[in-house]
């Protein structure tokens, strides 16, 4: 599934259930949901986020860049700051560096739990108590959407490496798959317009 589709579905989901989420609707929550909707694909060298980070779009470059970033963050934390926030960021960068796209941690429930715990801790540290809820919505919807594709996701990695998908799937690289994603985006925009009066 394309990045813009993931972001759109995450945003529409948040708009659909914002009144049931602690903190309700707010712009920070919407931004966190959209970023979390894109985050599982951060282990892909050609993802939307890596398009602005990596000088070369390949797996080796991704691994080297994220390991270097992790070392810099952890070393800086060790020398000057000693804060859990930077330690958590460093650990997250290492997880991203070693994860293989659609075959590892970032597309699993373990990844969802690990990153949510990190975000929850940061939220409590920096008085953003609801940030973990927003993150779970975006990240969880990414996994659910990828389960709609023929490739599926390794939901229970690293315990079980089998990939899981829903009974009805589609091929995102096919013409019909692109048409399906365009339909989802149009339906999402229509639903957002319908919900806007209730939000504001």
TrEMBL record:
Gene Ontology MF terms: hydrolase activity
Membrane spanning segments where?
A: 24-42, 63-81, 105-122, 134-157
One Pfam family recorded for the sequence? YdjM
Keywords attached to this Swiss-Prot or TrEMBL record, sorted alphabetically, are: Hydrolase, Membrane, Transmembrane, Transmembrane helix
Entry-linked InterPro entries: YdjM, YdjM-like
- Report the PANTHER family cross-referenced here: INNER MEMBRANE PROTEIN YBCI-RELATED
Protein name as annotated: Metal-dependent hydrolase
**What species is given as this protein's source?**
Clostridium bovifaecis
């Amino acid at each position: 599934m394309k990045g813009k589709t993931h972001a759109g579905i995450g945003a529409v989901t948040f708009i659909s259930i914002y009144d049931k989420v602690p903190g309700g609707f707010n712009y920070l929550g919407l931004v966190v949901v959209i970023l979390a909707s894109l985050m599982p694909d951060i282990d892909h060298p050609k993802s939307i986020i890596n398009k602005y980070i990596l000088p070369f779009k390949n797996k080796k470059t991704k691994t080297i860049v994220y390991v270097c970033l992790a070392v810099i963050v952890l070393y800086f934390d060790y020398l000057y700051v000693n804060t859990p926030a930077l330690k958590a960021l460093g650990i997250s960068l290492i997880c991203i560096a070693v994860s293989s796209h659609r075959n590892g941690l970032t597309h699993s429930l373990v990844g969802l739990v690990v990153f949510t715990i990190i975000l929850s801790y940061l939220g409590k540290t920096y008085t953003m108590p609801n940030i973990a809820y927003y993150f779970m919505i975006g990240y969880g919807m990414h996994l659910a959407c990828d389960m709609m594709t023929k490739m599926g996701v390794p939901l229970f990695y690293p315990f079980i490496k089998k990939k899981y998908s829903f009974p009805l799937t589609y091929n995102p690289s096919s013409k019909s798959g692109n048409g399906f994603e365009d339909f989802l985006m149009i339906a999402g925009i229509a639903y957002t317009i319908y919900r806007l009066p209730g939000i504001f």
